[in-house]
Amino acid sequence: VIMSSPIKLTIKPETILKNSQNNELIQKLLESSIINDWERKFLENIRENKKLSPKQQDCLKSISQKVSDI
Predict the structure, then answer these.
(1) pLDDT tens, 10-69?
(2) 15-17-18 Cα angle (round to 5)
(3) Are 57 and 65 in contact (CB under 8 A)?
(4) How many whole angstroms from its chain centre is CA 41?
(5) 10 Å Cβ neighbour count for 32?
(6) d(Cα 50, Cα 12) in Å, to the nearest integer?
């Protein structure tokens, strides 16, 4: 039996910052009355994610722009 040392993962500070910014943005968008049902469900679902895919990040940006344009 070969025993290896546990893998230690380090989260980059910029990743922590981006996650925090995303969470704040998501909360702000969820408080908006102009988002539709699909957008609301999407935001509720990604709120739990630690890391968003590029497509999810683009969608979050699109919703944010929609809200800020009004």
Answers:
(1) 888 888 888 889 999 999 999 999 999 999 999 999 998 878 999 999 999 999 999 998
(2) 65
(3) no
(4) 13
(5) 16
(6) 13
| Spatial contact of 22 and 50, defined as CB atoms under 8 Å apart | no
Distance CA 50, CA 15 (A): 9
Alpha carbon 28 to chain centroid, angstroms: 12
Distance from C-alpha of 70 to C-alpha of 11, rounded to nearest angstrom: 36
Q: Is 26 exposed, middle or buried (0-12, 13-18, 19+ CB in 10 A)?
A: buried
Residues in the chain: 70
